[in-house]
């Protein structure tokens, strides 16, 4: 029995637009972000997808993105689980800083290491490996069982929490996953085999 897992990074946030490190801070979506989320729902509806359960983080940009999608697919009241395990990577002392200002303070090389290494966290924050350490157990215990029962599951979350999840799903190395960019508001549809391996993957670009 194969199930379907749909991953969506939230639409553009106000801090994405301003080039700020966001992490666990909670800015809203921009006008474009709302449009991206609605468009994602429209593309999923066109694919004929009907969801059994949805998951998101405790941050509003992911929750609002999820609600737009559910509204568009005609399931506004779908059971939705919110959990901090799906939050964006915590950028610690970088949170709220403009990325150019951070480069001026710590140097371009150091900021690049914090942003793009797998296991070096910024001061007071999380590395991608740290993010995975909370995402992976939550996925295995709470989300994956629904998919393996043949259900269709929607997860609306963040660039790095989804990157960690994709790393596990696709068996990517640390070098491969840090090179992956996830566009805002673009659904990724996985079909899983009964043994939890990926049978197919489709990216629903505009």
UniProtKB/TrEMBL annotation:
GO terms for molecular function: phosphoglycerate mutase activity. It comes from Phyllobacterium myrsinacearum. GO terms for biological process: gluconeogenesis; glycolytic process. SUPFAM superfamilies: Phosphoglycerate mutase-like. The gene is gpmA. Homodimer. The keyword Cell cycle does not apply. Belongs to the phosphoglycerate mutase family. BPG-dependent PGAM subfamily. Keywords: Gluconeogenesis, Glycolysis, Isomerase. The record marks 158 as: Transition state stabilizer. Pathway: Carbohydrate degradation; glycolysis; pyruvate from D-glyceraldehyde 3-phosphate: step 3/5. Catalyzes the interconversion of 2-phosphoglycerate and 3-phosphoglycerate. This is 2,3-bisphosphoglycerate-dependent phosphoglycerate mutase. Substrate binds at residues 9-16, 22-23, 61, 88-91, 99, 115-116, 159-160.
């Amino acid at each position: 029995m194969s199930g379907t897992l749909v991953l969506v990074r939230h639409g553009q946030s106000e801090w994405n637009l301003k080039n700020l490190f966001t992490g666990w801070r909670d800015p809203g979506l921009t006008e474009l972000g709302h449009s991206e989320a609605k468009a994602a729902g429209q593309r999923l509806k066109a694919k004929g997808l009907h969801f059994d359960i949805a998951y998101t983080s405790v941050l509003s940009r992911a929750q609002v993105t999820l609600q737009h999608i559910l509204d568009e697919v005609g399931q506004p009241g779908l059971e939705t689980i919110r959990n901090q395990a799906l939050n964006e990577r915590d950028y610690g002392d970088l949170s709220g800083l403009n990325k150019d200002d951070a480069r001026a303070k710590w140097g371009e090389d150091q900021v690049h290491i914090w942003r793009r290494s797998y296991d070096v966290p910024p001061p007071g924050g999380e590395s991608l490996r740290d993010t995975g350490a909370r995402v992976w157990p939550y996925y295995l215990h709470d989300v994956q069982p629904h998919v393996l029962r043949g259900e269709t599951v929607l997860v609306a979350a963040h660039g790095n929490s989804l990157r960690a999840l994709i790393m596990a799903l696709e068996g990517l190395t640390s070098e491969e996953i840090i090179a992956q960019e996830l566009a805002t508001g673009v659904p990724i549809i996985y079909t899983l085999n009964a043994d939890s391996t990926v049978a197919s993957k489709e990216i629903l670009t505009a």
